[in-house]
Specification:
Aminopeptidase, globular
């Protein structure tokens, strides 16, 4: 199929309906709130592909300092596929992070997308599974609490070693938008585990969910299931965390689809995926 000449421009708020249209065609879970968050977190790193006066695709990026950037939301209308547009979008998202001086570019790929990423030099890091199930009423241990504003700084510091970089702005925005959906486990003055959840188009999304001690992870998960009783839930599990897989199985969360975490460049900040029970989302890590 003939390739088209692609020009990139910055994404604007008025492009969100176009992004939602493409996202809905793909069956993804993002809301308008997610697109607004992308534009707020990285206003110069979200792009729309144009062919003359037609919008033909989207890509978003988030830079986590100089350590790594994240590429997501690479979307092209069905009638415009197989024309090189997706590759052009991906390359532009990669180059944005590189121009800002990041050491590596990371993303979560579908098995189909992995074929393209391999040709661009991306390497496999680890595999993930999206699990799907429902919330239910459960008894939750007394050590679980709903986070207060004053604990946000401690949570951001706790998160960094497992995620691999400071993502304070992402966590701050998620807490501000959904303050009742962040659960903590504290021992003394220290946070030793937390879980966030948020609404999505198809289901609620659990993540990030990061815990030091295995026995704490299940209690945080039960708090989320209790909060979301009767609701459909997704979460994305790193398979290197065997306890996370065990918990997903125990509560009947079924495999929906696989992903592969990949990186381009020197991956010096992988974090500690064995402590990650659910990522924030494939579009932002």
């Amino acid at each position: 199929m003939e390739k088209v000449k692609v020009e990139m421009r910055l994404m604007r708020k008025e492009d969100i309906p176009f992004g939602m249209k493409l996202k809905n065609i793909a069956g993804w879970n993002q809301l308008e709130a997610d697109w607004k968050r992308f534009l707020s977190l990285e206003p110069k790193g979200c792009f729309v592909a144009m062919a003359e006066d037609r919008k033909i695709g989207t890509v978003t990026t988030i830079c986590y300092g100089a350590k790594f950037s994240w590429v997501g939301m690479v979307l092209v209308p069905p009638e415009e596929r197989r024309k090189g547009i997706g590759t052009a979008l991906l390359r532009y998202g990669i180059s944005y992070g590189q121009r800002k001086g990041v050491e590596s570019v990371r993303l979560d790929a579908t098995p189909l997308g992995k074929k393209l990423y391999n040709t661009l030099g991306f390497k496999d890091e680890y595999r993930l599974e999206r699990r799907e199930g429902k919330g239910r009423s459960l008894e939750v241990a007394g050590g679980v609490s709903v986070m207060k504003q004053e604990s946000l700084g401690k949570l951001i510091a706790f998160d960094e070693s497992s995620f691999g970089a400071d993502r304070g702005e992402v966590l701050r925005r998620l807490f501000e938008e959904y303050p009742d959906n962040c659960f903590l486990w504290e021992e003394g003055k220290d946070i030793t585990g937390y879980l966030m959840c948020r609404p999505g188009y198809n289901a609620y999304q659990i993540g990030p969910w990061i815990v030091e001690k295995e026995e704490v992870a299940e209690e945080l998960f039960k708090a989320a299931l209790n909060k979301l009783s009767g609701e459909k839930i997704f979460f994305d599990v790193p398979l290197v965390n065997e306890n996370a897989v065990r918990i997903a199985d125990k509560y009947g969360f079924q495999l929906q689809r696989p992903f592969i975490r990949m990186y381009l460049g020197e991956n010096r900040y992988p974090g500690r995926p064995e402590k990650i029970y659910a990522i924030s989302g494939v579009e932002k890590g």
